[in-house]
Give the backbone structure.
Amino acid sequence: MRNFFLNKVAIVTGASRGLGREIARLLASKGARVVLAARSAEALEQLADEITRSGGQALVVPTDITQQEQVERLIQATLDHWQQVDILIANAGQYIRCPVDKLTPEIMQQSMAVNFYGNLYQVISVLPHMRSRNSGHIVLILTMDVKTPIPPDAPYVAAKSAMSGLAEVLRQELHGSGISLMAVYPGRIDTSMIANLSFSPISAKIPPIVVAQAILKGIERRRSRLLLPAQVHILNMLNFFFPAIADWTVRLFHLEGWEDN
Ligand SMILES: NC(=O)c1ccc[n+]([C@@H]2O[C@H](COP(=O)([O-])OP(=O)(O)OC[C@H]3O[C@@H](n4cnc5c(N)ncnc54)[C@H](OP(=O)(O)O)[C@@H]3O)[C@@H](O)[C@H]2O)c1
């Protein structure tokens, strides 16, 4: 059977832990050459060692995605090493929460710097190369909170929503270009990002490997949007057709105790 990922070059940001590490591992296990980016160089080196020992290929490029020149260097380092970028997984992100009453411009700017501009820099740095080859896959990791926002996530939701809006436009602009764009809207994933939160049945945590597998399948099928798990679809539909009931559901399952988070 044809292996879609064999020898493809895939950049994964936020590869030092959590979902990004899982995606990078899975890509490498399928024969992709992976470029590991995040700020924690040591964690990236450890993952690269693990991948190499398993017979895979990995390149470590420590990167702070909030710095445009570092993101440009990440793309250039990949091209210098492997002369191509087939897949960009813009996964790095930061969960920044604050009730709107207490929000300061600095908190909002921090969330925008990571969750919006960090992604934007990745997209605009890789696009000229992908356009020149008329091929490529861009994956943006957003959040179900864009579809069903919950308190007190305003800084996070606002930045991810801005990225979601940009993704919807970019997908139209890329139509016919040979470059696919997939926006991913996951529910709660079992990573350190949300280790301190308590959970309800409608937002049970899913293992990162399950999300990673769904993302790789989505890339192969050139899907444009990926919502998971099933509860996210239900909440999304509820929000669209019965917004008052969706608000009630969020209050019922999420609101209690959120001030402490
Ligand atoms: N966990 C969830 O429930 C959940 C749900 C929906 C969506 N998501 C999204 O999924 C993605 C991965 O989240 P996760 O759960 O795996 O979180 P995580 O375990 O906290 O990992 C976040 C990753 O992003 C990297 N990162 C953060 N700021 C960065 C920066 N300025 N420059 C470069 N890398 C940076 C971190 O690496 P360094 O600290 O080493 O830089 C780390 O590798 C995020 O975009 C998140 O918003 C998560």
About this structure: Confidence is low (pLDDT under 50) at residues 255-261. The longest helix spans residues 105-133. The pocket of NAP is lined by residues 13-14, 16-20, 38-40, 63-66, 91-94, 114, 118, 141, 143, 186, 188-189, 191-194 (CB under 6 Å). Helices lie at 18-29, 41-53, 68-82, 105-133, 154-173, 208-220, 230-241, 243-255.
